[in-house]
Write a structure and sequence with these properties.
Layout lengths: L5 E6 L2 E6 L7 E3 L2 H15 L3 E4 L19
Parallel strand pairs: 1-4
Antiparallel strand pairs: 1-2, 2-3
Pfam families: DUF2188
InterPro entries: DUF2188
Organism: Agromyces intestinalis
């Protein structure tokens, strides 16, 4: 990926748009459709490419609690 390209991907149950070389522009979304639409618009605004990395939906947000000490 080149700087400014937008990648939409699943990350532990949430969907995120990651901007190569500009992490401050990256955002998370609750649904795949919402993330894909926003990623497409962001890429158009930046004049860059948009790539969607598909994955199997889990239906669960799995933010880990660092205080739990559970390192499965």
């Amino acid at each position: 990926m080149a700087d400014g390209d937008v990648e939409t991907r699943s990350n532990r149950g949430q969907w995120e748009n990651r901007v190569e070389g500009s992490p401050e522009l990256s955002q998370s979304y609750a649904s795949r459709d919402e993330a894909v639409d926003a990623g497409r618009e962001l890429a158009a605004t930046l004049g860059s490419q948009h790539v969607v990395v598909d994955s199997e939906p889990t239906g669960v947000i799995t933010d880990e609690d660092p205080a739990s000490g559970d390192d499965r």
